[in-house]
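Appendix B: complex inputs.
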Amino acid sequence: MKALGIDIGSRYIKGALVEKGEWIDFKRSETTFNPLEKCNEMLKEMPADRVIATGYGRHLLKVHGDVRTITEIKAFAKGARAFFPDCHTIIDIGGQDTKVIALNEQGNVWKFEMNDRCAAGTGKFLEIMAKNLDYSLEEFGSEALTARQEIQLSSMCTVFAESEVVSLTAKGVEREEIAMAIHRAVINRLASMAKRFPLREEVVFAGGCAHNPCLKKLLEQSLKRNIQVACAPEMTGALGAALFAEQHGI
Amino acid sequence: MDYTEMWRNLGLNLENHAGLLAVLSDGYKNIYLSQKGRPKAMEYFDFVISEVHGLRIKEIADAKQAGRKVVGTFCVYVPEEIVLAVDGVCIGLCAGAEVGSDEAEKFIPRNTCALIKAFMGFKLAGLCPYVELTDLIVGETTCDGKKKAYEIFQDITGKVYVMEIPNMKNEESKKLWHGEVVKFKETVEAITGKTIRVADLKKGAALVNGKRRALQRLSGLRETDPVPISGLDALLVNQISFYDDPVRFTQMTNKLCDELEERIKQGIGVAPKGARRVLISGSPMAIPNWKLHSIVEGSGAAVVGEESCVGERNFRDLLDENFSTVDEGLQKMADRYLEIDCACFTPNDERLQNIKSMTQKLHADGVIHYALQFCTPYMMEAYKVEKALGQIPFMRLETDYSMEDVGQLKTRVEAFLEMMK
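Resulting structure:
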C-alpha cells in the first residue's frame, strides 16, 4: 500500500509518497495561481491508495471527496519525528507564516505558536528582501554570512523594511551587511516566539528556509542550542501527512 | 416592506446602507442559514435579524413618537433597569462589522480596537439607525480606547453621558460606583421628566431579571452532549438580547429553551455526540461578529459557551429584587453590577474562577481566549487565564473584524482541535 501526503503551501506544493513507513518518492512544484491543477498533476504522477492533504491549501482537495486533511502543525510533528526521533521542538519559517511547535514524549503536539497575520518574518519577507538586493534565494544566506560588519535593521514590517533597505543601499552600506541584518531581524522575531515555552531538545529547523545556512547559524546562536536540519527539510509536512495516512487510514 | 423613507428621515446614507444590508444578508445566509438541524424556534431570531434595521427601528421610532426615550449603551455595566423603570428603550450600540473604518480613522488612531472603530464608523458613515434614534448615549470608563473615543463621540453626536467605572473593587470604589448609579438614575429622570418610584424600579428589575433568567436557562442547556443548539445560534440570541424588546425577547428565548429541552430528551443535537466542545473567553462579540464561532464550528467542533460581555458576563448575576425603597434598590443594583468581571479591573481573579467553573460546568474540552486586536485588557489577561487553566487545552487568538486572517485562524483552530483528540 502506498500513501501520499500533499502539503499545499502558499509558495510550493510538496508531495511525499511512502510505503511501509519508507519514503519512496517526492516532488515539489510552485503553487502558482492554479494550485488545484498542480495537485492533480501530483496525484497522477504519484498514484497512491491513500492521500492526506495538509498546508494552507489543504481544503482544496475536498473536490476529490475522499481526501482527508490534517493541519500542517500536526503534519510537521509527524514528519519531524520521522527525520529525528528525539525531536521535541520544531521551528518552521513558511511562505506566509512562521511557527514553533512543541511536542510531548509521544510526539504529539503539546503547544504551538504562530506569527500574526502580517508577512513580517516569514519566508515571503526573505524572498522579497533577497530580490531587492538582487540575490537568488539559494545564495542569499551564504552571501549574508560573508558580512564583515554588523548593522541593525530597525523595522520588521515588510513595507517599512523595504524602504529601510533602500535608504541603507543609498548610504552605500554593503549588501552583504544588509542581507545579514535582514536574517538577524527574522531570527530575533522567531526566537522570541520560541522562548514563549520551554525549549526542549532536539530542536529541528524544518521547512524550505532551513536550507539557508545563515538562518540556521543565527538560530543556533540565538537559542544557544544545536539545531537539526533534515536532508530535505521542505518535505517535513508532506512526509508527515503521508505517514499519518499510512498509519491511520483514509 | 419598504423602509427607505424612514431611513432617509433618520439621515442615513442610503447608498452605503443598501450595501451594508446586502452584505449582512449574504453573510447571514452563508453562516447561519447553511447550518443543519437548527431548532425551529430560531426562526424568530432569523426574522429579527432580517428586520434589524427595519421593523425594530420602526418599533423604536413609534415608541419615541409615543413619548418614550431611547438610551443607547456600549457596556453591560450600564443598569438597564433604570431605563426600563421610566418606560424607556435600552439599546446596545456596539458594532461587530468592519464598516466606516476610513471615516473613523479621521478621528481615532489606526491601532484602535475594531469594536470602537466600528461604532464610530457606523455613525460617521451614516449607517446606524439606532444611534440616530437615541436621546441619550451612555459611555463608560472601562478601557482607555473607549473613554477617549466617547469624548470625540460627544463632539459628533452631542448626546453622550459617561459613567465612571472604577478600576478596583474596594470600599471606596463601591462608594464611587454607587454614586454613579444614583447619578445615572437622576440623569434618566431628568431627560424623561419622570420620578422613579420603587414600583417602577421593581418593574425594571423584573424585566431585566426575566431576560437574564432566560439567557441563563439557554446557557444551562448547552451543558448537554450532544449540544442541542450551535454556538453560532446561541451567540446570536445573546447578541439580539441587546436590542430586542425585552418582554418579547424573554418569551421567545424561553420558547427556544422549551424546544431545546425537548431535543435533549430525544437526544437530538446539532453536532454528533462526543464532538469537541470549546469555550470561548474574552472580548465581546458584537453583532454581526460571527467570525470565530463560524471557524470553530466549521471545523467540526461545538462552541458551548461565551465567557464574554455578549454572553455569560451579561446574565450571570441576577439583581436581588427584594428591596423596599428606591435607595435600597439602587444600592443592590450597584452591588450587582460591580460583580461583573471585566478585564478593566485589577485584580480580576473572579474572572479566572468563572472561566474555570464554566469550563467544568459546560464540559468544555478546551478554551480559546479571544481578544480583539488592541483590546489591551483582555490581551494582557490571557496570560493569567492560561496559567489558571493549568492542564486544560488553551489557545489565545487575537484578531479583528476583517476576513484577511481567516485562513490562518482556521489552521490554528484546527490544530488546536487536533491537539484535543
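Residues 83 and 172 of chain A are 43 Å apart (CA to CA).
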